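Thread amino acids onto this structure.
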């Protein structure tokens, strides 16, 4: 009897321990991974655009970030948001006043970082418009690549952000310095080096990511010694991802795309994507640089079935490479909510229109 009681007690304890271990494993899986510049996690998520421009243009005007976005993103199984921001949201474009910051607006960025911590989502802060440069119009009054005043202001803004988030662990927040640079490599390396040194003078251990050259598409091997990660893009070929995009004049009269596709006299398919958009970045990885896809997706004029096939080929390649990604965007023309596609049957989701097929595809990879 005593032996039987001992065995029952031992078995119960073992089951309890297994259950506890299972619970602990589940808890551990909900903790954000610890990133390193040489090995970025396979973060998966979205760009949120509240600070993308200053003003009220576009589907997501400047204003506070929405906690519901973080909640939905987490509930759907994702763990990353990139915040492409214009410094015009908290400072004037007038170079004479570049260092005068609007604390009220910056607190809205603080709130987004807090939402990320609360919902276990990594927040990547990006200056889409930095003093002296933006890939989008209007042009900045001074040129970041050649003007020291612009560079000094850019360093000032990043040092300020470094001070705001000093002490926050890298698993919660990271910096992505300049969106989609278009300049020569020597000028880019000079600017990035100054920004990295400025940030590390305040917060030596902050995780820093830099976009590749040629609008994020070309890895920069000579930045490997700075111990920063690098961010690539998933928009090639452009005639599929940006079909009928109003801001790309060269595609104004492009024929309706298919996938696979021919563009610029090249046949594009999964094999082409691997050769052009994966293999060069794998070489960078071998130099000890972590890689993440900061932006990608298909504009809402691309036929939906074409977009999904195109997206799936990218997703398969990135999963195989071990790279994470951030779809442009969450709500809007590239996203899964309120994308305004003419050929999608949407599902109502708490006042939004959800592209359920695209969400399911993203969750798969």
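Threaded sequence (365 positions):
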């Amino acid at each position: 009897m005593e032996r039987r009681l001992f065995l029952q007690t031992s078995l119960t304890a073992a089951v309890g321990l297994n259950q506890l271990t299972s619970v602990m494993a589940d808890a551990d899986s909900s903790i954000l991974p610890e990133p390193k510049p040489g090995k970025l996690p396979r973060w998966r998520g979205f760009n949120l655009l509240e600070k993308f421009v200053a003003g009220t243009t576009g589907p997501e005007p400047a204003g506070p970030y929405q906690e519901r976005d973080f909640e939905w993103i987490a509930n759907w199984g994702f763990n990353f948001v990139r915040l492409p921001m214009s410094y015009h949201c908290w400072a004037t474009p007038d170079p004479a006043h570049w260092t005068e910051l609007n604390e009220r607006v910056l607190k809205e960025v603080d709130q987004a970082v807090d939402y990320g911590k609360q919902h276990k989502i990594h927040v990547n802060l990006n200056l889409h418009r930095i003093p002296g440069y933006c890939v989008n119009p209007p042009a900045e009054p001074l040129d970041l690549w050649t003007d020291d005043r612009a560079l000094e202001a850019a360093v000032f803004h990043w040092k300020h952000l470094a001070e705001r988030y000093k002490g926050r662990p890298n698993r919660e927040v990271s910096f992505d310095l300049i969106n989609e640079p278009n300049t020569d490599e020597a000028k880019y390396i000079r600017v990035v080096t100054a920004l990295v040194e400025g940030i590390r003078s305040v917060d030596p251990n902050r995780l820093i990511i830099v976009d590749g050259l040629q609008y994020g598409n070309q890895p920069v091997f000579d930045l490997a010694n700075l111990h920063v990660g690098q961010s690539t893009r998933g928009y090639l070929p452009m005639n599929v991802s940006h079909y009928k995009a109003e801001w790309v004049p060269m595609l104004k009269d492009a024929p309706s795309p298919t996938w696979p596709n021919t563009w610029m006299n090249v046949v594009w398919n999964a094999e082409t994507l691997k050769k052009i958009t994966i293999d060069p970045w794998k070489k960078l990885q071998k130099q000890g640089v972590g890689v993440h896809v900061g932006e990608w997706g298909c504009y809402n004029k691309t036929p939906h079935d074409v977009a999904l096939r195109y997206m799936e080929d990218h997703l398969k390649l990135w999963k195989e490479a071990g790279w994470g990604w951030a779809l442009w965007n969450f709500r809007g023309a590239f996203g899964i909510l309120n994308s305004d596609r003419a050929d999608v049957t949407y599902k109502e989701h708490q006042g939004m229109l959800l592209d359920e097929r695209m969400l399911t595809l993203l969750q798969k990879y």
